[in-house]
Specification:
The structure is a single chain. The chain is α/β, with parallel strands linked by helices and 224 residues long. It has one domain (2-214): Rossmann fold (3-Layer(aba) Sandwich), CATH 3.40.50.300. The chain has 9 helices and 8 strands. It has helices at 13-24, 31-44, 49-54, 86-96, 99-113, 125-129, 143-156, 163-179, 201-213, and strands at residues 2-6, 27-30, 61-65, 70-74, 77-78, 118-122, 135-140, 192-195. The strands form 2 sheets. A 5-stranded parallel sheet has the order 2-6-1-7-8, with helices on both faces. A 3-stranded antiparallel sheet has the order 3-4-5, with helices on one face. A hairpin with a 4-residue loop joins strand 3 and strand 4. The protein starts with a strand and ends in an 11-residue tail after the last helix. The protein binds cytidine-5'-diphosphate.
Length: 224
């Protein structure tokens, strides 16, 4: 059973997807963590696109997705923290626009979701990766609210960052993600759009759980 939540950066997809997964008894899958993992490799390879493409069949990345946790490893090294670095933030949209990387991630996402109950979050899940998902959401919020949320989140983590820097990164990624040729960020025609600008986190989660309860293929499961 597949529930997807797509949307731009900072719309609250990951916190929402984790809480929905926890309350609905699903596992949480973060597709952005995969693109970030490949960006980590791209940086390690000196930003050499050809070398990155060459190692895609033997990338040694491992993604460990549980109820609310997404951990990433490269060989034996955990890189869960490294994939959120400024340098990965700055290059991830460039790497995510590479066709070969998207093919690899699409396959990884389908493999990790097979025969499982999962809530996945990303950009193209409802349009390209899982066009037949049981339920699709497109989560948005106005750009200023999204930049502010992402800034608050990073400050809470103790990071040194300015609101301008965060706004710039969010705007740039949105622009690249929405205008790329392959699998651009886009609402699927059959996705339910939720604008979270004026919703509390709890209201946002409640709205999604309500849709899950009223979806016949999903509602046989107990949703708290
Ligand atoms: O957390 P945030 O929304 O800021 O980003 P993320 O979900 O970690 O995704 C990081 C980047 O990966 C995005 O800006 C996209 O360039 C790319 N991405 C994508 O192209 N397709 C997806 N399904 C998920 C992420």
């Amino acid at each position: 059973m597949i529930i997807v939540i797509d949307g731009p950066a900072g719309a609250g997809k990951s916190t929402t997807a984790k809480e929905v997964a926890r309350r609905a008894g699903f596992d949480y899958v973060d597709s952005g963590a995969m693109y970030r993992g490949f960006t980590y490799l791209y940086l390690k390879l000196g930003q050499d696109r050809t070398r990155l493409i060459d190692i895609l069949d033997n990338h040694r990345l491992r993604f460990d997705f549980h109820i609310t946790e997404a951990r990433v490893f490269h060989g034996d090294t955990e890189i869960t923290g490294d994939i959120r670095s400024d340098s990965v933030n700055s290059h991830v949209s460039e790497v995510a626009a590479m066709e070969e990387v998207r093919d690899t991630v699409r396959q990884l996402l389908r493999d990790v979701s097979r025969d499982r109950k999962v809530v996945l979050e990303g950009r193209d899940l409802g349009t390209v990766v899982f066009p037949d998902a049981d339920l699709k959401f497109f989560l948005t919020a106005d750009p200023e609210a999204r930049a502010r949320r992402r800034y608050d989140e990073r400050i809470r983590k103790g990071e040194q960052v300015s609101l301008d820097q965060v706004r710039e990164n969010v705007d740039t990624r949105d622009r690249i993600d929405s205008t790329r040729d392959i699998a651009p960020l886009k609402k699927a025609d059959d996705a339910l759009e939720i604008d979270s600008t004026f919703l509390t986190f709890e209201e946002q989660v409640a709205r999604i759980l309500q849709y899950i309860r009223s979806t016949p293929t999903l509602s046989q499961d107990k949703v708290n």
